[in-house]
Amino acid sequence: MARKLLLEHINVPGINTFDVYRQNGGYRSVEKALKTMSPDAIVEEVKTSGLRGRGGAGFPTGMKWSFLAKPEGKERYLVCNADESEPGTFKDRYLMTYIPHLLIEGMIVSSFALGAKTSYIYVRGEMMPQIRILERAIAEAKNAGFLGKNILGSGYDLELYVQPGGGAYICGEETALIESLEGKRGNPRIKPPFPAISGVWACPTVVNNVETIAAVVPIINDGGEEYAKIGIGRSTGTKLISASGNLNKPGVYEIDLGVPVEEFLYSDEYCGGIANGKRLKAVVAGGSSVPILPANLILKTVNNEARLMSYESLSDGGFQSGSMLGSGGLIAFDEDQCIVRNTWNFARFYHHESCGQCSPCREGTGWMEKVLHRLEYGHGKMSDIDLLVDVAKKIEGNTICPLGDAAAWPVASAIRHFRDEFEWHVTNPKEAMERNYGLAKYADPLPKLEEVSQ
Amino acid sequence: MSEKVKVTIDGITVDVEPGTSILNAARQIGGDIVPPAMCYYSKLEGSGGKCRTCLVKVSKGSEKDPRPMPKLVASCRTGVMDGMEVQNITSPEVIEARKGVVEILLINHPLDCPVCDQAGECHLQDLSYEHGVANTRYEFERRTFDRIDIGDKIQLHMTRCILCYRCVYVADQLTDSRQHGILGRGDASEISTYIEKAIDNDFSGNVIDVCPVGALTDRTFRFKNRVWFSKPVDAHRHCPTCKGKVTLWYKGEEVLRVTGRKDEFGEVEDFICNTCRFETKNTKDWVIEGPRQISHKSVISSNHYEMVPLPVIKQNPALMEANKIEFDRASKI
Lengths: 454, 333
Description:
CATH architecture of the largest domain in chain B: 2-Layer Sandwich
CATH class of the largest domain in chain B: Alpha Beta
Number of domains of chain B: 3
Number of domains of chain A: 3
Structural class of chain A: alpha/beta
Largest interface: A-B, 30 and 32 residues
Structural class of chain B: alpha+beta
Shape of chain A: globular
CATH superfamily of the largest domain in chain A: NADH-ubiquinone oxidoreductase 51kDa subunit
Oligomer: heterodimer
CATH architecture of the largest domain in chain A: 3-Layer(aba) Sandwich
Order of helices and strands of chain B: EEHEEEHHEEHEEHEEEEHEHH
Strand content of chain A: 5-15%
Helix content of chain A: 40-55%
Distance between the termini of chain B: 46 Å
Number of strands of chain B: 14
């Protein structure tokens, strides 16, 4: 069993309090960073670690930090994005609920590295208990001298604030989050300028996911090189996966990146197989916005290699036969689940959460939802399927922020891989209302690729 | 004087000031290669980027970094770089994307042009004529709203709105307090005022001029006339609040409405105050400058004689005489 970095002490009773957390080696990284390291050295360490953004896009964190503009006389800000609203992802909430000091420790080290004197944790409005937990943890840390003026006698000041959001999915997009933090309507900004140049109150800003910031703690404690040894290829370190759906043991798991998907789904260490002895039909690998894959393609890539839980392996095959690691919200569907209904449900979510600023997303998401609703309830036409593909194509890439893409991908991929099921809903509307399509051929072994002679 | 940068749009090279947007560079070239813009308004800071009709393909980023941009970009909000190469109407990808945007803009638009005051000077009408398709694939009920009066002179018909945010920027940048804004989100978002608040400001009438569709209309002009039956005449007056340079729209002897002077992209030269727009509708209030030149492509110019006679007339003295009489008659007020 691999060593855990983030959730190492998760089962220690009272780990959510400052004292217990400190006794278990907490806040070591703050001491190390503030007393022995320079901000640039921390950024270098994070670069060495190869840590990539855990919020979905997977952008190298060290690189993002080094892009931060440092003009004289301007404040810099670090904002932690805890607006976790992706259907299927609940790792940040788990982390904040049970081990809040890990996030605060990471915030202190990261803020020091970036030279931020004020930092914010933007928490989704629905997570009121977590906001209270964080506020208490901040008060405890401040009481112990880890926050406030002159932290540990190093001369570094930091104020940390928790800002509740209004519960909008779009505010997880970094520029919309910044708008919302400033007290405005949560509409994404048009980039450029990027937040690294002009973010909160037109000051240089870095926005990072909760898990990314938490991962800075083990990187500083053990060193970036040590962290980079975990994982595979450019996917280094550990990742929290929120496993849900028809699994025997759903929950949050910390895995070394590079664990085979099959092992993650079926081994007793992790999810323990599909619930009730059923068979796997499909998997959404990284939260609702990534393409859905049928069972055969999630376990094996199109070249018949085992698919691994890593940024590269999950996106192997591009949009034709791959998916994405995203934010690590794995949803498993067993043979009794209806893909059409699920796609409709996702489309409904994106329709509801679209901010309405740019036209393709505002109008297109509603259109897709209505067509999918019609298909699911047996009033669909054959032409609707192609219509959906076309509308998805017209949204994708033409919007201000990635919400348009996130709305288009699940629909486009579901039709790409499960077209039979959509067609069955059109040809057998009555039957489709009474039973599900079943597993069909979605778990069949992949056909052998034809050898191309060189 | 800073160095000018060279940008090539659809094969036509132009030197522009650094920091110019691709759209404005294209407007300097003019002609067919100018991307349409529904939400961008050069006089309103921060506008643009929302409607996505001005998407273009950047096939070469700049001289220093020649990589193309991965996605289509909104030309109104993307600055030019030295040596940038842009494809607008020469890129099938752009044409396809624009067609998609037009279709999507129209799915919830009522298409009630026959009873809409904006018809004839509506940007959405022009846009869908040029880039849209003849039929719709949308088979659901369209979104509708009730008409509301926001202020005593302005009516808001939200059903027609394409949420370009221009009127919001007008209220932010021209008036001292904004009483209206976007409520709701997604396709349920709408322009509205604070509860029980009316828009009451000296410059509030400008929201009518900036509205690209018929969502905000002049209540003093509603259903009075079709714009192409009225005759635009430039005029000015001494106004203590604004520059007082306007276009009067005549029908016979009567001034039907007063608007700002709009250029070929539908943008006004100067914003005008409500007194000029709503209160002064008599010829004696104004100093007439002469007929307003309207682009010959616009439906508004269809019933009017141009100052410059057609080439065929130029060669025929009898026709020239007749044209002169007709022109005098037409331009007599």
